[in-house]
Amino acid sequence: MRAKIKSALRDLCVGISRLSKRSDRLLILYYHSIDERRGVKFYLKTPPEVFVEQIKILKDNYNVVSLGKLIMQIKRKKRLDKSIVITFDDGFKDNYTTAYPILYKLDLPATFFITTGFVNKRGYMDWKDLKELKESGFEIGSHTVTHPRLSELPRYKIDEELRISKETLEMRLDEEIKLFAAPYGDSKSVNDDVIELAKRYYECCCLTQGYFGIDPSNVDLYRLKRTPAMPDVYEFKLTIDGYAGLWLWLYEKLIILKNEKLKLTKI
């Protein structure tokens, strides 16, 4: 029953979206783990077979560019045809063992945002993995040291999270780190202090909640809203074709309501 209700709501949202004129938008997709959807963090996972199909769709039908190239084009005020960027958060080990070989084989760029405090820990990449990614032409960005909700920290702690993660990556990988993605990336986790300090250390600040993509005529490099790569091929196609925005927005709201209800039942 729940699956039928979810499907009906999704189809309603997509139907409404199809009625409006679709404008070309930039999409910065974000993944976390590329693994089977089970275990404690199942909600962060995209099954490998689904990931392969999604990446092939992008390869065959869309203009996939690196985040660095997109930023360069924005700064130079070049015409931005509909482009898609692939990113990964946290630095899960399967980003190296599963996603990397697929992307490398298909010659598609991607950016890996690394939480430096997770490196070498179980389930995450080590420095050798990250060096190979870098040497293979993939971009490495910062995702802080400890993955906190930055808005809950005092300004000096936010500074430490952004600065130390950058310094650690630069020392270990021997290259300048210019890209940053804020943990969680929602409006409750990023405040003015975060944006100001990101401007001090990086060329961009990537967020989340990019349900409708990015308007190419109005891009803020320090509020680059990214779009979730849904772990379902049909919903993924809807997303990249520009019809899933309303559904993505509603789906997140429903998850928040569900979590709040679970909290109340535990009190």
Q: Would you mind describing this structure in some detail?
A:
With 267 residues, the chain is of the alpha/beta class. It has a single domain (24-266), classed as Alpha-Beta Barrel (TIM Barrel). The chain is 46% helix and 12% strand. It has helices at residues 2-19, 48-61, 67-75, 93-106, 127-135, 155-173, 192-201, 233-240, 245-266; strands at 27-31, 33-34, 45-46, 63-64, 83-90, 111-114, 139-142, 206-207, 224-225, 227-228. Strands 1, 4, 5, 6, 7 and 10 form a six-stranded parallel sheet that branches. Helix 3 (67-75) links the parallel strand 4 and strand 5 (83-90). Helix 2 packs parallel to helix 4 (93-106) and helix 6 (155-173) runs parallel beside helix 7. It is globular. The chain starts with a helix and ends with a helix. The relative contact order is 0.15. The model is unreliable at 261-267 (pLDDT under 50).
Topology:
Blueprint lengths: L1 H18 L7 E5 L1 E2 L10 E2 L1 H14 L1 E2 L2 H9 L7 E8 L2 H14 L4 E4 L12 H9 L3 E4 L12 H19 L18 H10 L4 E2 L16 E2 L1 E2 L4 H8 L4 H22 L1
Parallel strand pairs: 1-5, 1-10, 2-3, 4-5, 5-6, 6-7, 8-9
